[in-house]
């Protein structure tokens, strides 16, 4: 059965373009696992170059990037080499060669129409729980700015236990969870909240 939000990932060991990895070794770190339909395809190539271009930003956030598709490791190697030779961009993160579709089955990223991996995004928190799942159609590339924004929002929430409102960006405040009792709602009134169910908190 595919993983759902909030579930812990199982032990996964896989071969990648940078050698074997075990996802359990990433415990204590944020991980961005992203799947792509196939190597040597136009949208995927632009995405991988975009991820590489912003790699230092992810690194500063303590986020590990891991790509995955059902292509072979030799296909990954050839594609990575081609991107470097043709565009001068080095792909600094590993790409899982999921030829047996084991990872794809766990994360439910196989498109039943064509059998390829879909364009998926998964944020895994330091406790190795899945916190965000997003799927993009094959013809639409991912927005790296939005992915970074979501990661920053999760990290803002991690220690403060605050949620982030619509269009939140780094530097903005958060919102507290709504009270679950009548007495709690009146306490919010006394605290000066604009609504008992909506209390904003400055960063």
List the helices and strands and how they pair.
Blueprint (H helix, E strand, L loop, with lengths): L12 E2 L6 E2 L7 E6 L6 H12 L1 H6 L2 E7 L3 H15 L7 E3 L4 H6 L11 E6 L5 E7 L7 H17 L13 E2 L6 H10 L8 E2 L2
Parallel strand pairs: 3-4, 4-5
Antiparallel strand pairs: 1-2, 3-6, 6-7, 8-9
Give your account of this protein's structure:
Strands 5-4-3-6-7 form a five-stranded mixed β-sheet. The chain has six helices and nine strands. The protein has a domain of 130 residues: Glutaredoxin, CATH 3.40.30. The chain is of the alpha/beta class. 33% of the residues lie in helices and 18% in strands. Strand 1 and strand 2 form a beta hairpin. The two termini are 39 Å apart.
Q: What is the C-level CATH assignment of the domain at 13-142?
A: Alpha Beta
**Termini distance?**
39 Å
Total beta strand runs: 9
For the record, what is the CATH homologous superfamily label of the domain at 13-142? Glutaredoxin
* CATH overall fold name of the domain at 13-142: Glutaredoxin
Shape: elongated
Low-confidence stretches: none
Which tags fit this structure?
single chain; 203 residues; alpha/beta; Glutaredoxin; five-stranded mixed sheet; two-stranded antiparallel sheet; 9 strands; 33% helix; elongated
How is this structure best summarized?
Helices cover 33% and strands 18% of the residues.
């Amino acid at each position: 059965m595919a993983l759902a939000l909030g579930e812990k990932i199982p032990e996964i060991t896989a071969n990648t373009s940078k050698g074997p990895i075990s996802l359990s070794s990433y415990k204590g770190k944020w991980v961005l696992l992203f799947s792509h339909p196939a190597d040597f395809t136009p949208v995927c190539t632009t995405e991988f170059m975009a991820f590489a271009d912003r790699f230092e930003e992810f690194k500063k956030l303590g986020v590990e990037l891991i790509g995955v598709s059902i292509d072979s490791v030799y296909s990954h190697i050839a594609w990575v080499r081609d991107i470097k030779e043709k565009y001068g961009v080095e792909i600094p993160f590993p790409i899982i060669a999921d030829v047996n579709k084991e990872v794809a089955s766990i994360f439910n990223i196989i498109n039943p129409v064509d059998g390829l991996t879909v364009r998926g995004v998964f944020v895994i928190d330091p406790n190795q729980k899945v916190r965000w799942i997003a799927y993009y159609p094959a013809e639409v590339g991912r927005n790296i700015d939005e992915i970074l924004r979501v990661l920053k929002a999760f990290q803002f929430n991690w220690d403060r236990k605050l949620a982030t409102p619509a269009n939140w960006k780094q530097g903005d405040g958060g919102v507290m969870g709504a009270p679950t009792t009548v007495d709690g709602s009146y306490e919010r009134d006394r605290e000066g909240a604009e609504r008992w169910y909506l209390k904003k908190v400055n960063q």
